[in-house]
Write a structure and sequence with these properties.
The chain is an alpha/beta fold. It is built from 12 helices and 8 strands. Strand 2 and strand 3 form a beta hairpin. The longest helix is centred in the N-terminal third of the chain and has 11 residues. The chain is globular. Bound molecules: SN-glycerol-3-phosphate and calcium ion (CA). Keywords: Signal. It comes from Planococcus donghaensis.
Length: about 290
């Protein structure tokens, strides 16, 4: 296991979690886990290690790899001229020095924008990556959790993503290094038909707090992951998702307390802006 984990775990193991934080507020205590349990928790760097570098940039993805995340999570959209780019919002306004909708700009126009300086001057010059660029750089180095972001805006985006993965030989059976997910569940059904050998996930927001066993069974007919907002995660939800045969990767942990709570709820993976939090669960000596 990683040296960093051991050091962080050792220091945290000496800390009482009953006096502060979310768990304590809820009257919970943090359980000790085995090293194996810690190793098995899947660590997903949300939009890259976006607590440390500008989201959805090569710098954030590289940071995620350096921090030993198992996956980087990326948001894929399509430009006016049909190119796949990696950016979260449907406009470039918040995360670049430009303005306008992603779908109204050409790739050339988007590539001229600065996607780093809004976060910190140290990242000036980062650009909006293409999907192709991310695959080329990170294939074989880290898993990639691909979110089809607002696919209803981009006719044919599922086919383009599938073509790019097939072209790079990343659509092989049992390729557990690529997972495709979306809040648009029809889009995921379509993607599953195009890429039947790849794992897919449904993203769900707060309105799915009372998801029924029947609904989970329906999701499980085409998806392998049920990935909800962490706000609705309970023991019962985790258990029901597992009963349905899916894994659960909640989003988005942004504090140590949030990561520890998810860990103790027995989720399978944690989508976080801070990969270091996932490696900080107190570990048993034995
Ligand atoms: O991977 C889950 C998470 O990325 C979904 O929310 O808004 O950050 O894309 P969002
Ligand atoms: Ca996302």
């Amino acid at each position: 296991m990683k040296r960093m984990v051991t050091i962080l775990a050792a220091s945290l193991a000496m800390t009482s979690f009953t006096g502060s934080g979310l768990a304590a507020e809820q009257g919970e205590t943090v359980k000790m886990v085995s090293k194996q349990e810690q190793q098995e928790m899947v660590n997903i760097a949300h939009r890259g290690a976006s607590g440390h570098a500008p989201e959805n940039t090569m710098g954030a993805f590289q940071k995620g790899v350096e921090m030993k995340a198992d996956y980087i999570e990326i948001d894929v959209q399509m430009t006016k001229d049909g190119e796949l780019v990696v950016i979260h919002d449907t406009t470039v306004d918040r995360t670049t020095n430009g303005t306008g909708k992603v779908g109204d700009l050409t790739l050339k126009e988007i590539r001229q924008l600065d996607a780093g300086s809004w976060f910190s001057e140290a990242f000036t010059g980062e650009s909006v990556p293409t999907f192709e660029e991310v695959l080329a750089e990170f294939q074989g180095k880290v898993g990639i959790l691909v979110e089809l972001k607002a696919p209803e805006l981009y006719t044919g985006v599922e086919e383009k993503v599938a073509d790019a993965l097939i072209e790079k030989n990343m659509s092989a059976p049992n390729n557990n290094k690529i997972i495709i997910q979306s809040f648009n569940h029809e889009s995921i059904k379509k993607s599953k038909e195009l890429l039947p050998n790849l794992s897919h996930g449904v993203l769900t927001g707060g309105s799915w707090a009372n998801v029924t066993e029947e609904q989970l069974a329906q999701f499980a007919s085409y998806a392998d992951y049920f990935n909800p907002t962490m706000k609705i995660v309970t023991d019962e939800l985790v258990s029901n998702v597992h009963e349905a045969g899916m894994d659960i990767y909640p989003y988005t942990s942004r504090s140590q307390e949030q990561a520890l709570r998810l860990f103790d709820l027995n989720v399978d993976g944690i989508i976080t802006d801070y990969p270091e939090h996932v490696y900080s669960h107190p570990v048993k000596n034995s």
